[in-house]
Design goal:
The complex is a heterodimer of chains A (185) and B (323).
Chain A: H1 2-19, E1 22-32, E2 45-55, E3 60-66, E4 71-72, H2 75-85, E5 93-101, E6 112-124, E7 127-140, E8 143-152, E9 173-182
Antiparallel strand pairs in A: 1-2, 1-9, 2-3, 2-4, 3-5, 5-6, 6-7, 7-8, 8-9
Chain B: H1 2-21, H2 25-35, E1 39-41, E2 64-75, H3 84-87, E3 98-105, E4 111-117, E5 122-132, E6 135-137, E7 144-154, E8 169-180, E9 185-196, E10 201-202, E11 214-225, E12 230-239, E13 246-248, E14 254-255, E15 260-269, E16 273-280, H4 287-292, E17 304-314
Antiparallel strand pairs in B: 1-6, 2-3, 2-17, 3-4, 4-5, 5-7, 7-8, 8-9, 9-11, 10-13, 11-12, 12-15, 13-14, 15-16, 16-17
Classes of the chains: A alpha+beta (185), B mainly beta (323).
Chain lengths: 185, 323
C-alpha cells in the first residue's frame, strides 16, 4: 500500500515538474517591411511586445502579438495599418500556435547553433492558415534565441490592399521574428 | 494518517489538473493578454491636421515631417461681374489665389511645431500641443484637447504709420476640443482668439481703437467618413464680437469684414497623400485672415474652391533594424 502511494506521488510530482518546464518571454521582436524595394525602410514596422512560450518537453510553441504594438517609420502608414488593413480595433491580436520540428531538450543544454523548423497555425486578421518555416536556434550564455524569417501573403489573410498601393508592395511580405528566452538551468 | 495522505494526493492531483489545463499554450497567452489593463487611445479623429481651413486635433506623427500645400482660388461667382465669371472658370482662372506652404514636425507624440508661408509675403510660426487624448480603459477621457498658437508676421511692402516689426505681428490662440463619436463621425469645437498688435482702423465704440485689436470667435467642425479612405468634412466659425463697421485711421471710412467662415470639404486618403478638396467662404490662406479679416460674404454667395495636399515623411526611424 505504502509503495503504491509513493509511486503515485512520484509520478504526480514528476509530471508536475515536467509541466513546469516552459519558457516565456514578453519581449518578442517582430519586424516586417512590405516595400517591394527592400532597401527602402519607409514602410517598415516593428513590435517589441510579442509574448511567446516554449514548452520544452513537447516542443510546443505559441506566440501572441497585439497588433497595436507595431510601430511604423511613417505615422500615417501606422494609421492605415490599424484602420484600413488590419482593423485592429476589432481584431486586436495575431497569434501562432505550433510545434518545433527537430528540437530536443539537449539543444538548450549547451551553446551552439541549430537549424530546426516549425509547423503550426498562424492567425492574422482573424484568418487562420497553416504555417511551415525553417527556424534557427542559437543557444549562447544561457539565452536561447529563435530566429524565423517567413513570408506572408496578404490576400491569404483577407487583407485588402487597394490597386493603387499594390505595385509598391512586395507580393510576399517578409516577416522576421526574434524570440529570446532566458534559460534558467 | 490515511486521511492526510488522501488529502495530499487530492491536492497534487488538482495541481496536476491545473498544469494540464495550462497545456493550451496560446489560450494561456490570450488569457494573460486579456487580463492586462487595456488603455484604448483614440487615433485618427480626423484624417488631416486640418478639418478644412481650421486646425484639427491631429498632429503629424512622432518623428514625422509633414509638408502641406494649400491653395485657395478666387470666388466662384461674384455679383456684378457677369459673363467674366464664366471666363474665370469658377475662380480657377481668376488671377486671385492664395497659397499656403507649410512644414511641420512632431518631436514627440504630444507636440508639433511648424512654419508656413501663407501668401502675400506673410509668414506663420506655430506650436500645437496635445493636452488630453480621448481614451477608454482604466482612465476615461471623453475628448481630445489641443492648444494651438500661431504667430503671424506680415512682411509685405508698404509702411504702416509706425512701421515697427512689432506692429506687423498678430497672433491666433485656439483651443481644439474634439471627440470621435464613432469610426465615422468626429466633431470638434474650436474657440479662437486673434490679437493684432496694430490695426489701421479702430472700433466705433472707442476712438482709441483698442477693441479693434481683438477678435473672438467660436467654430465647429466635423467629419463623416463614408469609406475608410473618403470622408466629408464641414466647418463653420462665427465671430463673437462683431468685427465690423470699423473706421479706417487713414481715410476715416468704414471697413467691414465678414464674421462667418463656412466650408464644406471632401477628404481623400490615397495611401501616401491626403487630398482635401473644398468650397469655402474665404479666399485667404491664413487662419488669422480667415477668422478676422475675411472679405468673402457667404450671404452674397462668395464661395471659392480650394484644395490641400498633405504628405508626411518619416524622418526619425522608429524601426532601426529593418529586415
Amino acid at each position: 500500500m505504502k509503495h503504491i502511494l509513493l509511486l503515485t506521488l512520484s509520478i504526480i510530482l514528476g509530471a508536475s515538474v515536467l509541466n513546469a518546464q516552459t519558457y516565456k518571454t514578453r519581449e518578442g521582436y517582430l519586424t516586417f517591411n512590405p516595400n517591394k524595394d527592400q532597401s527602402h525602410k519607409d514602410y517598415a514596422a516593428a513590435s517589441k511586445e510579442a509574448t511567446a512560450v516554449l514548452k520544452v518537453e513537447t516542443a510546443e510553441v505559441a506566440l501572441l502579438v497585439p497588433m497595436k504594438t507595431f510601430h511604423f517609420n511613417n505615422a500615417l502608414l501606422e494609421e492605415h495599418f490599424n484602420e484600413n488593413y488590419l482593423h485592429t480595433d476589432k481584431i486586436p491580436n495575431a497569434s501562432y500556435k505550433g510545434k518545433l520540428i527537430g528540437f530536443t531538450k539537449d539543444m538548450l543544454a549547451k551553446d551552439g547553433t541549430y537549424n530546426i523548423s516549425s509547423e503550426g497555425q498562424i492567425t492574422l486578421h482573424g484568418v487562420t492558415n497553416s504555417f511551415k518555416s525553417p527556424v534557427k536556434l542559437e543557444v549562447k550564455n544561457k539565452v536561447a534565441t529563435f530566429y524565423c524569417d517567413f513570408p506572408i501573403q496578404a490576400d491569404k489573410f483577407n487583407i485588402d490592399i487597394p490597386a493603387v498601393v499594390k505595385p509598391k508592395l512586395a507580393d510576399q511580405t517578409p516577416i522576421s521574428a526574434t524570440i529570446k528566452f532566458q534559460l534558467n538551468q | 494518517m490515511k486521511k492526510i495522505t488522501l488529502f495530499i494526493i487530492a491536492c497534487l492531483l488538482l495541481g496536476q489538473f491545473k498544469a494540464m489545463a495550462q497545456d493550451d499554450l496560446l489560450g494561456d497567452l490570450e488569457k494573460e493578454d486579456n487580463a492586462k489593463p487595456k488603455q484604448n487611445i483614440t487615433t485618427g479623429t480626423f484624417k488631416s491636421t486640418r478639418v478644412i481651413n481650421m486646425q484639427s486635433v491631429e498632429i503629424t506623427g512622432k518623428g514625422n515631417l509633414q509638408f502641406m500645400i494649400s491653395h485657395h482660388f478666387g470666388n466662384i461667382w461674384e455679383n456684378g461681374k457677369g459673363w467674366s465669371n464664366l471666363a474665370e472658370f469658377a475662380g480657377l482662372n481668376g488671377g486671385v489665389a492664395n497659397t499656403l506652404l507649410s512644414l511641420d514636425y512632431s518631436p514627440t507624440t504630444w507636440g508639433n511645431v511648424g512654419l508656413a508661408l501663407t501668401g502675400k509675403a506673410q509668414y506663420e510660426l506655430w506650436g500645437k500641443l496635445k493636452l488630453l487624448r480621448q481614451q477608454t480603459g482604466e482612465h476615461n477621457i471623453p475628448v481630445t484637447l489641443d492648444w494651438f498658437s500661431t504667430m503671424h508676421i506680415d512682411c509685405s511692402e508698404g509702411a504702416s504709420p509706425e512701421d515697427f516689426v512689432w506692429n506687423r505681428m498678430s497672433y491666433l490662440h485656439q483651443l481644439l476640443i474634439a471627440r470621435k463619436f464613432s469610426d465615422k463621425l468626429s466633431l470638434q469645437l474650436t474657440p479662437s482668439y486673434v490679437h493684432y498688435n496694430y490695426t489701421p482702423y479702430y472700433g466705433p465704440k472707442t476712438a482709441g481703437g483698442k477693441d479693434a485689436n481683438n477678435v473672438f470667435s467660436v467654430g465647429i467642425g466635423g467629419r463623416y467618413k463614408f469609406t475608410s479612405k473618403k470622408a466629408l468634412t464641414f466647418e463653420y466659425s462665427r465671430q463673437l464680437n462683431g468685427y465690423k463697421n470699423l473706421l479706417s485711421t487713414e481715410t476715416g471710412g468704414l471697413v467691414n469684414y465678414n464674421p462667418d467662415l463656412i466650408s464644406l470639404g471632401y477628404d481623400w486618403d490615397t495611401g501616401g497623400h491626403i487630398f482635401q478638396f473644398y468650397v469655402s467662404s474665404t479666399t485667404a490662406a491664413s487662419n488669422i485672415t480667415q477668422l478676422s479679416r475675411n472679405t468673402s460674404d457667404f450671404k452674397q454667395g462668395n464661395f471659392s474652391l480650394g484644395f490641400t495636399i498633405n504628405r508626411s515623411f518619416g524622418v526619425k526611424k522608429v524601426v532601426k533594424t529593418a529586415p
